Amino acid sequence: MYKYSFYNDYSEGAHPALLELLTRTNYDQEHGYSNDSLCLQAVELIQAQIQNQQAAVHFIPGGTQTNLIALASMLRPYESVIAASTAHIAVHEAGAIEATGHKINTVCAPDGKLTPEQVLAVLVDHTDEHMVKPAVVFISNSTELGTIYRKADLEALSRVCRQFNLLLYLDGARLGCGLTARESDLTLADLSQWVDMFYIGGTKNGALMGEALVISNPNLQEHFRFHLKQHGALLAKGRLMGSQFVGLFQNNLYFDLARHANASAEHLAQGIMALGYPFLTPPATNQIFPILPDRLIESMSQFYGFYVWKKMEDNCSAVRLVTSWATPGEKVEEFLKDLRFG
Amino acid sequence: MYKYSFYNDYSEGAHPALLELLTRTNYDQEHGYSNDSLCLQAVELIQAQIQNQQAAVHFIPGGTQTNLIALASMLRPYESVIAASTAHIAVHEAGAIEATGHKINTVCAPDGKLTPEQVLAVLVDHTDEHMVKPAVVFISNSTELGTIYRKADLEALSRVCRQFNLLLYLDGARLGCGLTARESDLTLADLSQWVDMFYIGGTKNGALMGEALVISNPNLQEHFRFHLKQHGALLAKGRLMGSQFVGLFQNNLYFDLARHANASAEHLAQGIMALGYPFLTPPATNQIFPILPDRLIESMSQFYGFYVWKKMEDNCSAVRLVTSWATPGEKVEEFLKDLRFG
Amino acid sequence: MYKYSFYNDYSEGAHPALLELLTRTNYDQEHGYSNDSLCLQAVELIQAQIQNQQAAVHFIPGGTQTNLIALASMLRPYESVIAASTAHIAVHEAGAIEATGHKINTVCAPDGKLTPEQVLAVLVDHTDEHMVKPAVVFISNSTELGTIYRKADLEALSRVCRQFNLLLYLDGARLGCGLTARESDLTLADLSQWVDMFYIGGTKNGALMGEALVISNPNLQEHFRFHLKQHGALLAKGRLMGSQFVGLFQNNLYFDLARHANASAEHLAQGIMALGYPFLTPPATNQIFPILPDRLIESMSQFYGFYVWKKMEDNCSAVRLVTSWATPGEKVEEFLKDLRFG
Amino acid sequence: MYKYSFYNDYSEGAHPALLELLTRTNYDQEHGYSNDSLCLQAVELIQAQIQNQQAAVHFIPGGTQTNLIALASMLRPYESVIAASTAHIAVHEAGAIEATGHKINTVCAPDGKLTPEQVLAVLVDHTDEHMVKPAVVFISNSTELGTIYRKADLEALSRVCRQFNLLLYLDGARLGCGLTARESDLTLADLSQWVDMFYIGGTKNGALMGEALVISNPNLQEHFRFHLKQHGALLAKGRLMGSQFVGLFQNNLYFDLARHANASAEHLAQGIMALGYPFLTPPATNQIFPILPDRLIESMSQFYGFYVWKKMEDNCSAVRLVTSWATPGEKVEEFLKDLRFG
């Protein structure tokens, strides 16, 4: 077995406060399908955080399901979604978006972020009814490459979307780490203002499971529970998701957990930099991509779990190291020590 | 608030043994997407129960999602599924099956059960390529009306399916109660023999969430995880479902919980019968449908949660009372006492 | 070979005037995809006939394709369409509507016509997001059973639809015969007023192929060509359909051809009645359903093509006889003579 | 109006022999839905041409419809199709393939042709159930850029497909021109041997409308008419398509028409080359892409219809000129003369 796995941020279960809340409320009889008191409380906590009482909030078991439901609800049959070619929906959802009938127009974006210019270029290329009609822009924060959107990035993108009648959707599987990154100047309230729909990821930030989808654009809220039901996302015991998000948002635990993950990654990154290794993208959140000699990767991989991300030149490769709310400081230290003596 | 809710069998959380297991394994680092040690152990426990080591077993968050994935995986684009007009997929899944592209051929079945004759009648009606081609028969056990299939029923249906090249699928949302009903002579091993695909419902039998889909027909097993992923059913922390089913099957807890629910319903039914009230369908499992005077229903509904199911003659209605693994004996007593003095 | 086939109204090719127009315009260079001068002229002719310059008109190769595109364009993913259980979309389109993701809520309607009460009953049954949301009412005129809607029928249905925010769609595969039936008091202009979308069938009324879809509700017109293209209905040589409809509507040929078909059927029906045979539904258009002794059916079927529609009591069956724009009077006479001496 | 339109190869109607056959058979009573004697005869003629009596042949109104039906019939829900990024299905079908639920994996192919290496690279990238599973390779001949596959190209691609269990599909919208190109050494019989499914395009080679889909792989033939019906491709008067293909294949007219189109394009290309202009891709079939000064394009476009394809450097652009079965030699001469004195 490994000394520690840096494979991902969902290797452990849930933060103990969430398990405790689950246990404490276990015998309360509640209504089904997210009409329970825990979900209602979680909705209110989230509305308060995003400073938008009019936002609709729904709880969905997982991220792929959230993305497919959200996008399917926003698109007419002939409409498409613009995304980075590295986007989760474009690569790692087994064609879930296409299975709802929609094309993804991919854009090459080496750092995982979309720019207004890239979006406009797609629009210019789509001229008539022989092609799909791009209607939604998909972004993630943090991105698949650990990078983040700053406030100015998001505002610029949002303005272009509104000017050209595009909806803006944000995949927040790792939103906690995105918002609490050292370089971030974005808040949940900003998202609610600039983004039409986004989700606050629970699974990768200390919950057992569950994502909170926020619909800030009122035009997109009507009849949304039909979409949830049709795709099997209305759980009979929706209370499970409600209690997770109550736990995450009642004492800012959500942000504390993300900060811990980011701090662990930063610690790791600084230690790796101190050893003189470069990075594929500048470390910003809880996913970092150091470039290491293949020989060293081989020896380290006997003791630690992580993915080799990309073959580089000179017998080196970028690896992905992911920290989480649960990463113990001593495991980071141990990794760095082993790397030094690798 | 109610003295007690008989609305359904998912009003409480999970059996404490499941929460305890969850907590105990919480910090173990596991692989994601149901490749964890808990899911693997749960698969083995279920294979042992069904006496079929070749069966594939997958864990899915909820019942609608399970049904839509299972049926979509079995059907070619032009094929349809035969079901009772009261079937969950026909009425209560917001068009989830049609959303995957498939028609449901409904059959009027007052007790919720399908017969070989009804299936054959649908086949006879579908003669050429101007119509859909029925390819799967959908049943549930227990049914939406609380009734059950006995071994002879299931064998007869299965034989007709095999003879006419139809697949047989069983929705086991309430399979525990179906199999442990007093009148039942069916086992999980029988199902594995006579049914191509079925699911063992966790949510309605004491789990926090999760259904275990069993694919006993080897021809239907290949590449199944792609179907799961495409519909968002591969949870990053699949371990959550794995641990539930380990807990349910390691000491036969699954059957004990179902027996408790059935016994509670039987107790309730006998008390109601003793008061002279008739039933819409003969009580058999944890859903019972007594026919009560509307005036009595009105007074009881101030203290107890339950659905009015169907308006009957003479100012009476059938109501649905549902018991669960968590129903306390004293609440049943209290209900009966209140009914007596209604 | 048969003396004559009464199987259907598409056994012959096209009315010679249409072939002549096709040939005359053959070498004109035209724009593709229904942007040609013939389609434009046909649109204007139809707008004039329906007395609605704001209506959008599109040409589509066949009826099933028209129905599936029209309904898919009107429905949100969770919405359904209400139709008679005998409707073409419910039985004879191989699941085409479901393949676009939508459920059909069927209503038992022995004469093939829907009433406001039947529509309301479906609405009452659909109460929440666990079920689909009915959003469109589908009717046909004439119906699958040869019956027609009178003006009062259509108005009543339309008023209920508007009151309950349902769209009304009319399948006009046999609209010519429906509107020119002796009992009909409806016009194309009435349809444009009371129906949101409908099609004027060409294939079954003398055209080589092609249906003209009329979108009278302006809210449903936007971006419609995307729907056409996505389902493969934008033909490169859309001119073929344009020229058919120019031919059909420039001298009222459309109505003349339908009147001929109706008159032939009426002639046939009167001859059969004179022999004392009853009918399944009162003869009204070009499809009639006399009930004949099985023995007589057997002998007649050696000389004439027709479908046995429904087994009746006393060794009799209803058969379907269909006349068309091309049915020669002498063939009707010959059939009646043979029937008399059958 | 233009002196002549080189916009495309479907600006005129049909070759007069096809109209003549249509008229001659117009009053014959035929069975509907391509069960008529003309379709049967066309199937036999095509089976003879491809030297494969076991091939199934179906007639479909248009190319986009053919592609979407063919691909949907070949793919399981989680499977994808590999295509050039310029492929018709990837750009110009309004998301028709995605609307059937499937992703297209695009490959950058400047000349519009796919190589075995490109196909293998896509396979290597798709490793597990988090991604789609590539299952079909889509090519066209001639391609969107007028280029062709030679026998060795096709064999190499086909061998790789068979080795890796991929199906090979060929879009033959312009197959006539592809096979009769001066450089081509391929025959219809070769296609039937090396390709699992392909279509012989009628619309762009002298027919009023209609494409003949050939299924040479017997495993893909079963129940195919259900697919046709479900997508609205079974026309009631399928005879129209049957008669077109009888006309095209009874005297090798199909190849004669394509040769005329190619010869016209070659004439045009040689004239343009003689004036010293370069080409975007080497002229091979009836679509040629000369690079002309923008000033000259502007003046020529007042008199001739054609598309500007791509902006090039030095104030030049590539234009697309398309010839057809109907292009008169004198129009080519006139174009060249005007170009010379432009």
How many β-strands of chain A, per DSSP? 13
The CATH superfamily of the largest domain in chain A turns out to be Type I PLP-dependent aspartate aminotransferase-like (Major domain)
- Tally of separate helices of chain A: 14
Give the quaternary arrangement of the chains: homotetramer
SSE pattern of chain A, N- to C-terminal? EHHEHEHHEHEHEHHEEHHHEEHEEEH
CATH-scheme architecture of the largest domain in chain A: 3-Layer(aba) Sandwich
Low-confidence stretches of chain A: none
Mean pLDDT of chain A: 97
Helix-residue proportion of chain A: 40-55%
Specify the overall morphology of chain A.
Answer: globular
- Numbering strands along the chain, what is their spatial order in the largest sheet of chain A? 2-8-7-6-5-3-4
How can the largest sheet of chain A be summarized? 7 strands, mixed
Rg calculated over all Cα atoms of chain A: 20 Å
How much beta of chain A, percentage-wise?
A: 15-25%
Alpha carbon gap, first and last residue of chain A: 18 Å
CATH classification, class level of the largest domain in chain A: Alpha Beta
Biggest interface pair, counts: A-B, 54 and 54 residues
* Helix/sheet category of chain A: alpha/beta
Give the domain tally of chain A: 2
CATH topology of the largest domain in chain A: Aspartate Aminotransferase, domain 2
